[in-house]
From TrEMBL, chain A:
Keywords: Cell membrane, Membrane, Transmembrane, Transmembrane helix, Transport
Family listed: Belongs to the binding-protein-dependent transport system permease family.
Organism expressing this protein natively: Marivibrio halodurans
Membrane-spanning ranges: 20-40, 84-109, 129-153, 205-226, 252-273
Pfam families named among the record's database cross-references: BPD_transp_1, OppC_N
Classification via InterPro entries: BP-dependent_transpt_permease, MetI-like, MetI-like_sf, OppC_N
Subcellular localization, as worded in the UniProt entry: Cell membrane
Lineage: Bacteria, Pseudomonadati, Pseudomonadota, Alphaproteobacteria, Rhodospirillales
Name of the protein described by the UniProt record: ABC transporter permease
A GO cellular component entry from the record: plasma membrane
Single Gene Ontology BP annotation: transmembrane transport
UniProtKB/TrEMBL annotation, chain B:
TM ranges: 12-33, 102-125, 137-160, 180-200, 242-267, 287-309
Name of the protein described by the UniProt record: ABC transporter permease
Protein topology in the membrane: Multi-pass membrane protein
Gene Ontology, cellular component aspect: plasma membrane
TrEMBL record, chain C:
Protein name as catalogued: ABC transporter substrate-binding protein
One CC-aspect GO term: outer membrane-bounded periplasmic space
GO biological process: peptide transport
Family per similarity comment: Belongs to the bacterial solute-binding protein 5 family.
Alphabetic keyword roster: Signal, Transport
Taxonomic source organism: Marivibrio halodurans
Length: 281, 318, 529
């Protein structure tokens, strides 16, 4: 066993049960999302039977069918791919933009830092949902536009975090030493700064990741999110919402899928936070 | 003391500058909205002829820069202009909406903040106990369900199954204050569910963070009871981050309620904004976006100032 | 046939009262018919008084009371059916009846129309209605700077003048037998004038059964009984009538089930079967002229070939769409826009789903290996995207490759409709054949959304317009329906019913089908049981 895997294993062994639960659930989601066509009994938009079957009406459709006769279970499984995939790509992009800019601001300082910080102040002073609504109305709601808009708006928060944490590191003696040694900008960021701030960034990643789902769900609710017939959990809840009035459980499944994933991710994040705060003291 | 005043002055100036840039962004964004009011108003029934007639009537043919400065000048004098659609004074249109939105936000805050702080302090006090874990999972589940879902579930249990509360917020001039509180209970609880978790977690984290500092250690060694340490020694120093997260959530209550407004048919600012975007009623979009931005900036500003004021080290300089 | 079915047929105007009673007698339910009492005023006189609350599915903060810009059912019901009247009205059984005009007559070429006004009609403000108000109200929609959607409807007016206080004479540039029917259009509500030709379009003053107490655009409106209403006790049964905007379907359904509203516009078709099962709730279905269409630009390939059009018309399974998109609440269309509710609806063979015929025409048009893009968004109608997805599956069975292109809701009517060669669309329909054809099928008109032109059709249209002979008109309109069905550029798969719900505490007579909500006149026609 290599040293890295050994370390990972050691880390995992000390993980509390909640973190284990979180890790397992997240892995299941990832597998389901990647292999959706294998798991799903029917196609994403395939009309399979009469509309509006409830749970247990027909054993071929475990969770029933939706309003035009598509299998709800299959749509939830495909929804994992669309919802989780979208949230993941968006969050990665958010961090790519936010962390790089934040670190550059911290390391370079001066006017670069000033300009970026002011831009971020302005972006943050406009409520994100309102801003996103405006921008998406202007440029149209394709999936790519949505990812870009959410990523840019959301990266402001990552920028602030990365900059704040980065600032603390940049003033450390070992960074000064590296500078004097004549190391380049990217070398300093990669070798000295990044390793020291990865823990708080990872913790933030979990929270931002969940935020993206809810944001997309709210946008769908207002008619600007993912458009039908693409299956995503937020719009599925929305489409079936009137069933709640009659006490039918179908809309609970996509909602529970979102809730379970959020809780799982945050369990993992909490554990991370705990580890990092433990390392500090 | 003067150091604090300078600091507050700086923040205020910065806030004003931000606000000015925001007005430009809002104006620009609204200018860029595709299609225009005339098209949107008539929808499928638009013909070139009728669209042109409306456009000319409204003076939409002047250059954008000119219109920006006219608009800014008017806004500074408190004149937001008239709605293109209803031709009503925007201040008249927006005023009651702002009041409604603030009322709901304040109501939700009155429920959410005390509960969140208490739960957070208790969670810090009984850290890692079953209580702590339970509250944590509950809080996570609450923030992870979309707002409209939480709202529909509440309506199902408390309005449809048991007719305890109304499912829509029907206000008119005769609605008394207590009626209002009663009607808005479900929307307020929905918002509480959505915002409480964040505040609670932050309170807990801030206090736990402080528990490791030497002065708390000292107090503990002196034999002061745990509860007293938290309330008397940890809390005052944890106030700054807590105020910050409360302010962020209050700002969210004001600007993030669009969805809740739609579900409960509550005439707040958010619905006005969304309607106006769809109808391309530019002056109303600009005015409401501006109100949102001002609220956001004010909230952040007061959070900044309050955390300066609540910082014992700044209040009692050596 | 059960009594309940019979009741439904009657309530939705598919049979008249005499047939209903005859039917009831035939199934031995005459007793039931008279004791149920509910929708049958002849048997139980409408009771007076009470407050009615109605939850509307449309309504926006940009709504106004000016009829020139009416575009939501909220301001149509409020500003047309509740606060005001028009010269003529469509009666619940679909005939043209008098309202503010007592009678009217035409010159033999149908060019000059003389309307005799009812005397002694009062506005809410106390002013008496005269010819000056009528002329000013109609001119409000004409003229250079008019913003009104009714402008094209009135384009043929050459001159409109008063002959004394209670006679209005309209001269048209060409004969039009339907002109009195035009006067029922919801834009043409009669408003008070200032005597100098200007109307007061925004205060809500009118001659209607209820006067405005409060109006908050996009939120609610409150009206109360107008004591001096000219129709008096025959109509106008409630003390007050309140309208609420509840655009969220789930919110509307909740308010209906919790009894916070008495009437719900636009029931959610996905759950209407569950709503129906709730005690005290009744679902009302009215088949009107509203229809869904799929226009193809006939001057763009491959749609310029009639074989393409026919292939697509045969490749759509209307029954499946009716069952899935409308849950059965509607009727299948026959590729022309004339509804059974229209006067001259012709009995033409229904086009059915026929993949073989579709294949035949597709082959003739060379559609193998051609991908046909169909633009869709739910802005076209609720369920439009679902319908497009279902059509894709139907067409696949005929070997036709349809690709559904999702378009944004926002800006759909300006950027997609009439711009993309094949899209989803809806029409509210028109009360007369001439209006419907003239608006969307005549050559060169602004809303001809298929750029279709057919010489025979255009000639017939002009010929029928000026004809006062009913039988001959019926013949011509039948031929025109056939032409549109077989050559036209649009698929008309469905006629959608208005599906609403109300408590059993409300009662009504025959429900008008010319517009939603009892011809927008629910406030004066319904009562509390």
């Amino acid at each position: 066993m290599s040293k890295a895997t050994q370390n990972t294993w050691k880390l995992l062994r000390t993980a509390p049960p909640t973190a284990w639960f979180g890790l397992i659930m997240v892995s299941i989601y990832i597998v389901v999302a990647l292999l959706a066509p294998i798991f799903a009994p029917y196609g994403e938009t395939e009309v399979v039977d009469v509309a509006g079957l409830s749970i247990g009406d027909n054993p071929s459709f475990l969770l029933g069918t939706d309003h035009i006769g598509r299998d709800v279970l299959s749509r939830i499984i495909y929804g994992a791919r669309n919802t989780v995939g979208l949230a993941f790509i968006t969050t990665v992009l958010t961090f790519a933009i936010g962390a790089v800019m934040g670190l550059l601001a911290a390391v370079l300082g001066g006017w670069f830092d000033q300009i970026l910080s002011r831009i971020v102040d302005v972006l943050m002073s406009i409520p994100p949902l309102i801003f996103a609504l405006l921008i998406l109305t202007i440029i149209g709601t394709s999936v790519i536009n949505m990812i870009l808009v959410i990523a840019i708006l959301d990266s402001t928060r990552v920028f602030r975090l990365a900059r704040a944490v980065g600032m603390n590191i940049v003033v450390m003696d070992y960074v000064e030493v590296a500078r004097l040694r004549g190391e380049g900008l990217w070398w300093i960021i990669r070798h000295e700064v990044l390793p020291n701030i990865s823990a708080p960034l990872a913790a933030e990643f979990g929270l931002r990741f969940c935020f993206v789902f809810l944001f997309v769900a709210s946008l769908s609710f207002l008619g600007l999110g993912l458009q039908p017939p693409t299956a995503d959990w937020g719009s599925m809840v929305r489409e079936m919402a009137t069933l709640i009035t009659f006490g039918l459980p179908t809309p609970l499944f996509p909602a529970a899928a979102v809730a379970l994933l959020t809780v799982s991710v945050n369990f993992v994040v909490d554990w991370f936070l705990h580890k990092t705060s433990g390392l500090k003291s | 003391m003067s150091a604090i005043l300078t600091m507050i002055g700086q923040r205020l100036a910065l806030g004003l500058l931000t606000l000015w840039v925001v007005t430009m962004i809002i104006f620009l964004a609204v200018e860029l909205l595709p299609g225009d009011f005339a098209q949107a108003l008539l929808g499928q029934s638009a013909t070139d002829e009728t669209v042109n007639a409306i456009r000319q009537n409204l003076g939409l043919d002047k250059p954008a820069v000119e219109r920006y400065f006219i608009w800014l000048g008017d806004v500074l004098q408190g004149d937001f202009g008239r709605s293109l659609a209803s031709e009503r004074q925007i201040s008249e249109l927006v005023g009651p909406r702002v009041y409604n939105t603030l009322f709901l936000a304040a109501y939700a805050a009155c429920i959410a903040v005390p509960i969140a702080l208490t739960l957070g302090i208790l969670a810090a006090l009984y850290r890692n106990s079953a209580y702590d874990r339970g509250v944590n999972v509950g809080a996570l589940a609450a923030i992870s369900s979309p707002e409209f879902f939480a709202a529909y579930i509440l309506v199902y249990f408390f309005a449809v199954q048991n007719a305890w509360f109304p499912s829509i917020a029907r206000l008119n001039e005769t609605t008394t204050f207590t009626d209002r509180l009663y009607m808005l209970f479900l929307p307020a609880v929905t918002l509480t569910l959505v915002t409480m978790a964040h505040m609670m977690r932050m309170t807990r984290a801030a206090i736990i963070n402080l528990m490791a500092s030497p002065y708390i250690e000292m107090a503990r060694l002196k034999g002061i009871p745990r509860g007293r340490i938290i309330v008397r020694h940890a809390l005052p120093n944890a106030l700054s981050p807590i105020i910050n997260v409360v302010a962020i959530n209050l700002a969210y209550l004001i600007v993030g309620v669009v969805v809740v407004e739609v579900v409960f048919a509550y005439p707040g600012l958010g619905q006005l904004f969304v309607d106006s975007v769809v109808k391309r009623d530019m002056p109303v979009v600009q005015a409401s976006a501006l109100v949102f931005a001002v609220t956001y900036i004010l909230m952040n500003l007061s959070a900044d100032i309050l955390s300066i004021l609540s910082n014992p080290r700044l209040l009692h300089p050596r | 046939m059960t009594f309940k079915e019979l009741q439904r047929l009657y309530a939705t105007k598919r049979i008249n009262r005499r047939d209903f009673l005859a039917g009831a007698a035939a199934i031995g339910a005459l007793g039931a018919a008279s004791t149920v009492g509910l929708p049958f005023p002849a048997m139980a006189a409408p009771s007076k008084g009470g407050h009615m609350r109605i939850g509307m599915g449309t309504g926006s903060t940009s709504d106004t009371l000016d009829p020139a810009t009416f575009d939501t059912t909220f301001n149509q019901v409020l500003g047309y059916g509740t606060l005001r009247n028009s010269l003529t009205e469509v009666t619940p059984d679909g005939q043209l009846g008098p309202e503010l005009a007592e009678s009217w007559e035409a010159s033999p070429d149908a060019k000059v129309w003389t309307f005799k006004l009812r005397e002694g009609v009062e506005f809410h403000s106390g002013k008496t209605m005269t010819a000056a108000d009528v002329i000013a109200s109609i001119n409000h929609h004409r003229g250079e700077n008019s913003q009104s959607a009714a402008k094209p409807l009135l384009a043929a007016i050459e001159d409109i003048k008063a002959d004394g206080d209670y006679t209005v004479v309209v001269t048209l540039s060409a004969g039009n037998a339907d002109f009195p029917f035009y006067m029922t259009d919801y834009h043409l509500a009669i408003l008070p004038s200032d005597g100098e030709g200007n109307v007061d379009a925004t205060s809500g003053d009118g001659t209607g059964p209820y006067k405005l107490e409060a109006f908050e655009p996009g939120v609610s409106a409150m009206t109360s009984r107008f004591e001096n209403y000219f129709k008096g006790d025959d109509r106008q049964h409630l003390d007050s009538f309140e309208m609420l905007v509840l655009t969220d379907t789930a919110a509307r359904t909740n308010a209906m089930t919790t009894g916070e509203i008495d009437y719900m516009e636009r029931a959610d078709l996905k759950t209407v079967h569950l709503l129906k099962n709730r005690p005290g709730v009744e679902v009302l279905e009215v088949t009107g002229t509203q229809h869904y269409t799929m226009p193809m630009l006939t001057d763009v390939d491959p749609f310029s070939s009639n074989d393409t059009r026919l292939a697509l018309k045969y490749a759509i399974d209307r029954e499946d769409l009716l069952a899935k998109v409308l849950r059965g609440y509607g009727a299948v269309g026959n590729d022309h826009p004339i509804a059974t509710a229209n006067r001259y609806h012709a009995d033409i063979e229904q086009r059915a789903y026929d993949p073989d015929k579709a294949k035949f025409h597709a082959k003739k048009a060379g559609l193998e290996n051609v991908e046909i893009n169909l633009s869709a968004a739910d802005a076209a109608f609720a369920g439009a995207v679902d319908a497009a997805v279902l059509f894709k599956e139907h067409a696949a069975a005929a070997g036709i490759n349809v690709n559904v292109v999702r378009e944004p809701n926002d800006g759909y009517w300006s950027d997609v409709w009439m711009k993309k060669p094949f899209c989803m669309c809806y029409w509210g329909g028109r009360p007369t054949e001439d209006q419907m054809f003239t608006t969307a099928y005549a050559e060169g008109v602004p809303w001809n959304d298929t750029n279709w032109s057919n010489e025979r059709f255009n000639n017939l249209l002009t010929e029928a317009r000026a004809l006062l002979d009913e039988a001959r008109r019926a013949e011509i309109y039948a031929e025109m329906q056939q032409i549109v069905r077989d050559d036209g550029g649009t698929i008309v798969p469905l006629f959608a019913s208005y599906v609403d719900a109300h408590t059993d505490g409300l009662a009504h007579d025959t429900v008008g089908a010319n517009y939603a909500l009892d011809g927008f006149k629910i406030a004066e026609r319904w009562w509390k049981a």
